[in-house]
Amino acid sequence: MTSPTAEVDHLRASRAAVLERIAGACGRVGRDPSSIQLIAVSKTVPAERLRSAVAAGLTALAENRVQEAESKVGVVDGATWDLVGPLQSNKARKAVEVAAVIESVDSVELGRRLDRLVREVRGLPVRRLPIYLQVNVDDDPSKFGFAPAELERALDDLAGLEAVEIAGLMTIGKLVESAEAARPTFVGLRRLSERLRARSDALGPGLSMGMTDDYPIAVEEGATVVRVGRAIFGERPRP
Ligand SMILES: *Cc1c(COP(=O)(O)O)cnc(C)c1O
């Protein structure tokens, strides 16, 4: 078994390597690396290892299941938790209790439910919950998210909510042979955001896109948040 100190060193090196590739991508397109947030996707990684991750500077973590997030939040200090996986309505209250940000809002109904729950859970005056609207940029039937054509209407429907803040758009790139092949998806999300923001103040400038196989490309195309799991924690056990 790896000692905690060796584990921290290893994770610190992985973090540095990812940050270096982010900086490299920024250099190619003239962006400032400090404008990009690295989120370490910690699903399947045991809480004990996550304590080493926090010690290594990986304090922004993300889970794709509410239950798994809940089991870790109380035993890993010093981290914030984004929720990046599909959220069933019966888990929404728990999600509001544990998540700093919910990146996977894929319906107007869920957005409204979160708004109501934030008021109930946090009370008034309410600290707003940042959310991202997940977009199925490529209209892939196997993926969650709003179709691009639905978003304008959805933003109008969500615009008045006071307890959630629509920080931006999120997407998951296509499973493709090369990172380069994911580029059109990222370009699509950025353009969609630009178009929508030109006509609605409700949408923030955030673009959550890019994972282990394609985050440098996503950064080149304007990502403000990258969600990286395997490049930091190694391969996950098969489900
Ligand atoms: C698992 C997951 C990631 C991280 O994927 P890696 O390929 O391990 O970097 C990012 N986003 C979402 C929504 C995920 O479920």
Question: How would you characterize the overall build of this protein?
Answer:
The protein is an alpha/beta fold and 239 residues long. The chain has one domain (4-233): TIM Barrel. The protein is 42% helix and 16% strand. It has an 8-stranded parallel beta sheet with strand order 7-6-5-4-3-2-1-8. The chain starts with a helix and ends in a 6-residue tail after the last helix. Bound molecules: pyridoxal-5'-phosphate. Pyridoxal-5'-phosphate binds at residues 41, 43, 64, 84-85, 172, 211-213, 227-230. Pyridoxal-5'-phosphate (PLP) binds next to β8.
Tell me the radius of gyration: 17 Å
Bound molecules: pyridoxal-5'-phosphate
Number of helices: 9
Q: β content, as a range?
A: 15-25%
How do the SSEs run, as a string of H and E?
Answer: HEHEHEHEHEHEHEHEH
CATH-defined superfamily: Alanine racemase
Could you give the count of β-strands? 8
Distance between the termini: 23 Å
What is the CATH first-level class name? Alpha Beta
Average the pLDDT over all residues and give the rounded result. Answer: 95
Shape-level CATH architecture: Alpha-Beta Barrel
What class, by secondary structure content? alpha/beta
